[in-house]
Amino acid sequence: MMIFNTRNAGSLKLLLGLLVIAPIYAFQPSMFGGDHGIAGQKYVSTRTSQHIRYPCNAPLYSVMANIESQAAIAADTWSVESTPFMEPDVAVKVEEQFQGRGDVIAFRVAGGRRLLPEGGSTDVSPGEGRRSRFVIMHPDLGLDIATAESEYCSVIRVDNVDVAGSNTFPNALASIGVHLENVGDIVVEDSSTVYLVVDPSVEKQCLRLLSKELVGVGINLSVCGDSEFMPKGEVQDMKLSKILERQMERKKLEQGFVQFG
After folding, report:
1. Residues ≥6 apart with Cβ < 8 Å to 111
2. CA 168/CA 211 separation, integer angstroms
């Protein structure tokens, strides 16, 4: 006969609590911005974006350590994890980190169905993607690179904008609260047409607010289809004015943003 004392009762409550929490946690979205699957099942998109995890200008060792944490989560929970957009020099280091791995695969995507520099080069030719991000997952999920790019890169076309008379696009995006970690390349096709790659989580925010920060008559923003190729053009530097940079840093602190490292 088992004698129930206070200690037994406390242990029983803890066990029951864990049994209730475990199945709920199994279906929760990743705290790193990924989509959890269930071991043994093929990938089915139920994407819910939760960004930002760490800044693209953080120290390299810090970025690498946190991406490795994402890889561990992807391997252990059969989830899909996505990194922020990053510059080529950082992306090449991350790509090297995932070569020959058997626990996860990492697709490097730039959006707009563009190629990336070959052979680990950081030199970007016209028409190639400069800023890119990684989509990390368990290799048995069945996600291909085209689907990864479609799920984690949205391409927005801006027509009838006065590029010369407008604020730079990085400044305009920061002014509407879009952090540059969620922005890929900004490609100026001509004096009135611009394409930009963004995380899908900020797509609606851009469509609704970005035109208010730009100069032009009849400015129109539209989302490009997955089959459309981004054109060659001049890639804008991802630099903020000093004032906006300070404002964005302040917003990060107010939102509880934690910079690793």
Report:
1. 129, 149, 153, 154, 155, 184, 185, 197, 230
2. 12
